[in-house]
Amino acid sequence: MNLLPFVATGIGLGAVYALSGVGLVLLYRAAGTLNFAFGALGALAAHCTWTLIQLDAPTAPSWIAGIIVSALASFLYGRYVSARLVDRDRTVRAICTLGFALAILGALTTIWGPGLPRRLTLPTDNMFVIWLGLRLSYTRIAALLVAVLAVIGVGVLLTQTRTGLAMRALASNRVVSQTIGVRIRATDAIAWLISGMFAGVAGLLLGDLVVLNPLTLTFLVIPAMAAAIIGALRSMIGAFVGGMLCGMAEALLIGVPDLAEVRSAAPYVIAILAMAAIMRAPTMARE
Amino acid sequence: MTFVRFALAASVLAAIGLFGASAFAAPDCGMNTGQAATGVPIPIGAIVTASGAADISSGAKGAKAYFDCINANGGIHGRPIDYSFDDDQTRPDKAAEIAKKMVEDKKAVALIGSSSLVDCIATSQYYQQAGIISLMAGGVAPQCFNARNIATTNAGPRYGLLGAVKYAVETLHVKHMACPQPTVPGADWVCAGVEGYVKSKGVDYSHFTFDQQSADYDSLIQRIVQTGADSTIFLGSPPTIVPFLAAAEHADVGDKLKILAPSPVYFPDLPKAAGPYWNDKFWVDLEWGPTNSGGPDMNNFLAVMKAYNATPDSLAEGGYLAARIAVQALMSIPADKIDRATVTAALQNVQDFKSDIFCTSWSFGPKDATSRLGNRSGWIAIIHAGNWQVLPGCVTLDDSMVMK
């Protein structure tokens, strides 16, 4: 069996997992919260965009509006809900985002219904290049570029800006950071805003490349979690590589008899292996 | 769980009823006396799946609407039908418990209009031992089509798809068919049916299993393409037909890979969701007629559902048809002779029952047969100019196609 076509399909999927993983890691590093609502925020963006397009709004502004909606929702949660939980255990904060996810999911299924999935399309879906005999659509290439840019952008943010410095300080020690004047709530809120933007972009790309359905998009946060875990919840590049690995593995396994039947489990298996490796590395196990 | 996905589809199929009902006339029900029946009630039961994996109870609700209409119009020679149904919660043990309650406590003379995911699995042997017939609105599991005492008004996943496959072989002249099989119980039975038929026609066949929990449909399409098939059946969860078609469009295989699907994907909004790429490139088998067909029995179905507050969805069509067949059988028996044995015999004698909701007709078939399919004909629908178009003519399955 020729596995090359599955490399092409894995690139698109992996890129979106990678982008999601980077968004999760950013938030975890800055605000110390593992955001289970990441997928739901993406679903929110994708459905708002779809509705605008159905109302004959131009494509580009509709996509931007969807990203703004998810970023805003994420910001509001970070500013007014998560901010009240800063002193609580990380597990509590993570569980609260699960409630946020379910609230968004409930709203989405109420407004858009759980029935037939819709389609979100881009003109780039049917534009493609042939590379090594692979048919790579511009949308897949764009997804990969966006994921790479996200890693670079977050890297620049963390290392070249005062906000990034504050985020790194918070990641290192929140109490000491507060003592030396880091504005914890403002920094957290910015992290939520950026993470919400990432969620929006990932949701839109998944809505285009995979399926536009509230439930499916909400739970696609799970492979993204796997990507983030592969990055030890700290490394952007690790999350990127993890996301690509998860997407590629899921795509390639369809060509492997027996394993094809369980390929959706690939991200979890990879995450478990990554966790086992992380636990064996003392310096990385602190988190 | 036996073919949960197809049943989930059935629950979503409620939307089919929205295809546009035509004008409602007064319902035509049995003796049409306009007088309520007051005699000794005739006990009839049903089993539905209303909770758990899906809610597909509208089959029994369609049957109840018609029985209510019969009761309000003189009943069966003056005797009303005492009809009730219960939820098996998608649990075979619960289905068995309800069946026992209906047969032994209620003393039902027949089970009419059941629509359940698990009923047949749990009860096919029991019905035979009890000498009672279950005429279902929605049979899903293989056992619903391989039991002496169970008949269905629907064609189910295997036979519904076989209609589309037969059309593809005879009319589209496909040379190589793929059957990607999701990892759900019952799907192997469907693919086995496709394999047996296409190989008998000299058509190449490819088969593989896939994980339908994965959202990566692009790889699934690539996997199908690599089999070398020029046609494939779609057996996934019905709503996933949209990403399946989208992935096929991404790969631009619409002209070289003919995609065939069963009735549950006949969503009213699918042509719009699928997009113009799929005009004249996608074929769906319909086991019952679309509700905007305008046929006299379809219009009566709509009138009955409206008069008795039932949703006129696709499964309700099956329940209505099961109830109509049952009433015809009951009417053939003198009022004082109606009991389980006579009703069983009367139902077994129903052959060539006509309704425009069936593409041709419905028959119980030989009473001792161990495989049966009453509804052997369907229509083929395609997406054309952004809308569904039902093609003229019926696709009818041969005897050789109806077997284990």
CATH architecture of the largest domain in chain B: 3-Layer(aba) Sandwich
Note the run of SSEs of chain B as H and E: HEHEHEEHEEEHEHEHEHEHEHHHEEEEE
> Topology as H/E string of chain A?
HHHHEEHHHHHHHH
CATH architecture title of chain A: Orthogonal Bundle
Determine the structural class of chain A based on helices, strands and strand pairing. Answer: mainly alpha
* Number of separate domains of chain A: 1
What does this structure look like?
In chain A, 71% of the residues lie in helices and 3% in strands. Chain A is an all-alpha fold and 287 residues long. Chain A has one domain (4-280): ABC transporter involved in vitamin B12 uptake, BtuC. A two-stranded antiparallel sheet of chain A has the order 1-2. In chain A, helix 1 packs parallel to helix 5 (138-160). The longest helix of chain A has 28 residues, at 4-31. Chain A starts with a helix and ends in a 7-residue tail after the last helix. In chain B, 35% of the residues lie in helices and 18% in strands. Chain B has two domains: 4-155 and 290-373, 3-Layer(aba) Sandwich (Rossmann fold); 157-286 and 379-401, Rossmann fold. In chain B, the strands form four sheets. In chain B, strands 8, 9, 10, 11, 12, 15, 16 and 17 form an eight-stranded mixed β-sheet that branches. In chain B, a hairpin with a 2-residue loop joins strand 15 and strand 16 (387-390). In chain B, helix 3 packs parallel to helix 4 (119-130) and helix 7 crosses helix 8 (241-250). By secondary structure, chain B is an alpha/beta fold. Residues 1-23 of chain B have low confidence and may be disordered. The longest helix of chain B has 18 residues, at 314-331. Classes of the chains: A mainly alpha (287), B alpha/beta (404). The A-B interface holds A 1-2, 5-6, 8-10, 12-13, 115-119, 121, 125-126, 135, 137, 206, 209-211, 213, 216, 220, 247, 250-252, 254-255, 257, 260-265 and B 12, 15, 183, 208-211, 213-220, 222-223, 225-226, 239-240, 242-243, 246, 249-252, 267, 269-270, 273-275.
